[in-house]
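re: that chain from earlier
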Amino acid sequence: MNKLIGALSAFLMISNISLAAGNADVIKAQARNSGPGVWSFSVTVLHPDSGWEDYADGWDVILPDGTVVKPVASEAFTRTLWHPHVNEQPFTRSQGGVEIPVGVKQVTVRAHDKRDGFGGKTVNVILP
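^ sequence. v structure.
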């Protein structure tokens, strides 16, 4: 019975590790002011993209109050990533025209993957 419990515990730990490993991580994010209240972001994402079923499909800029800032309101993310980057890891993509209210001094950047959603590493960005 103890061997069965040990084997089951090991299986669950391995399963949790593999699920966590699928999340898209933001490993670097930079902001550049391009006008009053308007910013451009350059974000580097790391995710084990495997194809169209599982890839990092976007990243968000989040205000301190939890609001997701999107230059195009109809898009799912601040920056939508339209295709897998299987052979390009990590990868960096930029997005301009991100409107941040004057006075906000810090935002959070998070990435999303098609299969597992949010949950990877985030980066806090101090706005100069």
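The chain has one domain: 23-126.
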